[in-house]
Amino acid sequence: MSVLVPPIETPEAAAAGAGWPARLHEWVVTVDHKRLGVMYVVAGLAFFLIAGIEASVMRWQLAAAGKTTVSPEVFNRLFTMHGTTMVFLVGIPIVFGFANYLVPLMVGARDLAFPRLNAFGFWAFLFGGLLLYFSFLGGDGLYGAGSAPSVGWFAYAPLTARAFSPGNSTDYWNLSILVMGFGTVATAINLITTTLTMRCRGMTLGRMPLYVWMMLVVSGMTVMALPPLSAAQVMLLLDRFLGAHFFDTQAGGSAIMWQHFFWFFGHPEVYILMVPGFAFVSEIIPVFSRKVIFGYPMVVAASLAIGFLSMTVWAHHMFAVGMGSPLNAAFAASTMLIAVPTGIKIFNWVATMYGGRIRFATPMLFACAFLFQFLCAGLTGVMLAVVPFNWQVTDSYFVVAHFHYVLVGGLVFTIFGAIYYWFPKVTGRLLSERLGRWHFWLFVVGFNVTFLPMHWLGMIGMPRRIYTYPADRGWDFWNLVVSLGVLFQAAAVLVFVVNVVIALRRGARAGDDPWDAWTLEWATTSPPPPYNFETVPVVGSRRPLWDLKYPADPDGPHE
Amino acid sequence: MTGASTPSMFAPVSTPAFAIREVSFLVLAIATFIFVVVAGLTVYAIIRYRRRPGDDGREPPQMYGSAQIELAWTVVPFLIVIILFLTTARYIFAIEGRAPTAQALEVTIVGNQWWWEIRYPKLGIVTANELHVPVSDPANPIQTFITLQSADVIHSFWLPQLHGKTDLVPGKTNRTWIEPLVPGTFLGQCAEYCGLQHAGMLLIVTVHPRDEFAQWVAAQQAQAADAPAARAGREVFVSVACINCHTVRGTPANGVFGPDLTHLMSRATIGAGVARNTPENLRAWVKDPTSLKPGALMPAMKLSDDKLDQLVAYLVTLR
Asked: CB count, 10 Å around CB of A4?
């Protein structure tokens, strides 16, 4: 088992001479930020496939009125597991996995500040994820067949009380998210420390790549928002096991308090997932437009503004709980306000493309689709802040459509773009552009066919989380359309998997800098050596590789 | 099932739903306008500045930013947000601030897993799942003010053609109101996930002309029927567990965990809208409620076929 590897050997060389147990051992004991980053993303993608299968079963059920292919119990577990998986096991690990990999490279560091803490964060996440899925076997405890949680991904009290959720399935939800929360906070602290203390010479805060800036904001939000959720989950544990009454309404506890706790986490969480999407496109759009980002200081300021404002909007999830008009109005105001910095970013990206020479490689295709789909998501977000409109469509399919435009049309699209963009750096090989275009177009069509009609379904009265619906409601046709879109999305994901497998086996060699890009990660080899850079780089502007390529016209004087 | 149509928020029949549609059209128009402008600019940038064949590979001129332009696209959205906020606030206070008039009808709705208890405290009526209200007209307005409570978990009251949602929260009392302006039957359902049969918690509202509503009230206030022919079934009813959960006024049955059955046959559906209220469905329901509504909390009564027939014969007399 114990194969000693000299510290300055590349991962490929180390792996070449060893059998799979030794290689596995290498990955399990690693504290290298790049390997941990890769493991985060790979695990996230595996859970993405599982969550996609769960969603597909739900869409099969809802394709026509009155279908009962799966029982209500199973359906409720499916949407609970789908939501929980997508947020906690797909979004967070992929977002932080990329940051793990990229932040040290982009700031010219050799690793994150606390490599062991980093490994702890990953393994806490993976353990939490496996614990959650173990609930399919262990959920009912000793006296039942076993089942996954069915309380919905935001697990509203008092449905989570022992009286309404007997067995252990809810505890699996609670404990696995709690464990993952600790891991995520650890990683966030690590990223903040690294960004603030380990930048290479010359990289002032004002010269950091926008990706690093935005991940700094995301990490700050994480440190602020996750602990309240963990606290609420500990209270729920006490309620369920020691008979405390924090959320137990039958004994005077408060159901609304859980909502405040949960959404105080839950809304910043949306931005914790979405700002990394902004971060990806803020790197991709300039490179493929061949132009420097338009208004760098403004984009940084907008990111910080989003970070602050995201802490003030949480109760817009609660306009129907009876908070009273003044609070409803206040949270409408903060929610609408956050549209301003978000809009600024969209304008800056479009202005960056303006006057460029746009190269539509696959990463840029995904970034462009993101612009339209996120615009749509942002506008429906503003609409949802109009409280009377919200009373109609909250908890309906309109909201389902809105947050899938945010998290799929926004985040998943940018994640795919980011994978196509950084895959060559991580593996040394290029993904196929031809398969990439197939992937892109199938996914664009599938995504929009699936989620656009959901807006309308919500407005004509279809609530979310129903396992079936009567035929007299007039919802059949659009539900069928929605379900057909799933086929295209599934095909797109299949093309993606094929693309990755082929590229890993015989993809074209990428070279150090296949996109002619400007940030530091492209200055080292693909894949980078364990120590990242042979000599610690020194930078003089926001685009160190531009300065190298055009020494006659460096960026510095323009900044 | 009831001849009602799609519960669209764009087909309002009640004052608050009209107000919501009004403000929704406004915000839809603003959002559409912004989408067209921004998406248009993006499409223009994509087409106009795409790399063309024969590109010489030189980098385009680098633009680092422009204070004026960036100020403009900060201030303009900010102004739009202010307008939108002021409009929203006006509608919030107008809709939520409405106080009941002297002649307003008071209704209390209690959410249960998975059915609605509907009480008319001033009229002494208790029913379930099917709300009956009088129509309002401008000359003689009558609103229905609804007090919302929950017996177990959170539910949400939603009749899209009458008003948006208000949650029914255990330990908290919420209020909402409707003012339907046309008679008819309108559909809604529970909109907050409330457990296994969340999907089976449907809601029907019937808006009556004034005189018809008065007749309905009188019929509901009457004592339960006690047909001599159904005495055997009545005996079954009061001698088994039915009475622990159900009330039939004028009999020993005074349970409160399940729907009041005093005028069961005046309702079009059973199981909170999951099945038509026919003798066959009633029989199937009493025999095993989960055959019509998987997970329903009423236990199967395990009666012999004879007793089941007698019991159903009694239930169908409860008009």
From this structure: 5
Give me the residue from B9, B61, B92 closest to A328, CB to CB.
B92
Segment A41-76, tens digit of pLDDT? 999 999 999 999 999 999 999 999 999 999 999 999
Q: What's the order of all strands across the beta sheet hosting B105-112?
A: B125-128, B115-120, B105-112, B144-150, B174-178
In angstroms, the Cα distances linking B10 to A171, A553, B191 are 42, 59, 18
The residues, any chain, with a CB within 8 Å of residue B215's CB and separated by 6 or more, are none
**pLDDT value of position B5:** 85
Asked if CATH classification 3.90.1520.10 holds for the domain at A31-558, the reply, yes or no, is no
Cβ contact, residue pair B63, A388, below 8 Å: no
**Same domain, yes or no: B32 and B162:** yes
Same domain for B143 and B32: yes
Q: Is B124 exposed, middle or buried (0-12, 13-18, 19+ CB in 10 A)?
A: exposed
Q: What pLDDT was estimated at residue A1?
A: 40
B198, B217, B236 — which closes off a domain? Answer: B217
- ipTM passes above 0.90: yes
Question: Is B164 found in the same domain as B41?
Answer: yes
Based on C-alpha coordinates, what's the Rg of chain B? 27
Please give the backbone phi and psi of residue B97, each rounded to the nearest 5 degrees, phi first: -85, 0
Q: Which residues pair with B145 in a beta bridge?
A: B106, B177
B72 touches chain A (CB under 8 A): no
Same domain, B209 and B232: no
Neighbours of B68 (CB within 10 A): 6
Domain assignment of residue B282, yes or no:
yes
Domains in chain B, number: 2
Q: Which domain holds residue B211?
A: 1-45+98-217
Residues B191 and B143 in one domain: yes
B207 with B234, same domain? no
d(C-alpha A298, C-alpha A304), whole Å: 10
Positions in chain A whose pLDDT score sits under 70: 1-17, 141-145
DSSP secondary structure letter of residue A39: H
Q: Do A325 and B93 touch (CB under 8 A)?
A: yes
| Domain residue ranges in chain A | 1-30, 31-558
B207 to chain A, closest Cα gap in Å: 19
Name chain B contacts of A359, Cβ cutoff 8 Å.
51
Q: How many CA atoms lie within 13 A of B144 on its CB side?
A: 28
Instruction: Say whether both B16 and B119 belong to one domain.
Output: yes
Crossing angle between the packed helical segments A476-506 and A413-427, to the nearest 10 degrees: 10
pLDDT at residue A3, as a whole number:
47
The distance in angstroms from the start CA to the end CA of chain B is 20
SS3 readout for A222-261: HHHHHHHHHHHHHHHHHHHHHCCCCCCHHHCCCHHHHHHH
Contact criterion met (CB below 8 Å) for A248 and A320: no
Determine the distance from the C-alpha atom of residue B183 to the mean position of all C-alpha atoms in its chain, rounded to a whole number: 17
B103 with B212, same domain: the answer is: yes
- Minimal CA separation from A110 to chain B, in Å: 30
List of chain B residues with pLDDT < 50: 1-2
For residue B33, being part of any structural domain is answered with yes
For residue B104, what is the domain's CATH number?
2.60.40.420
Chain B residues near residue A256 by CB distance under 8 angstroms: 169, 172
Cβ–Cβ below 8 Å for B154 and A291: no
Full 3-state SS string of A390-456: HHHHCCEHHHHHHHHHHHHHHHHHHHHHHHHHHHHHHHCECCCHHHHHHHHHHHHHHHHHHHHHHHH
The pLDDT, as a whole number, for residue A29 is: 95
Closest CB from B5, B34, B93 relative to A379: B34
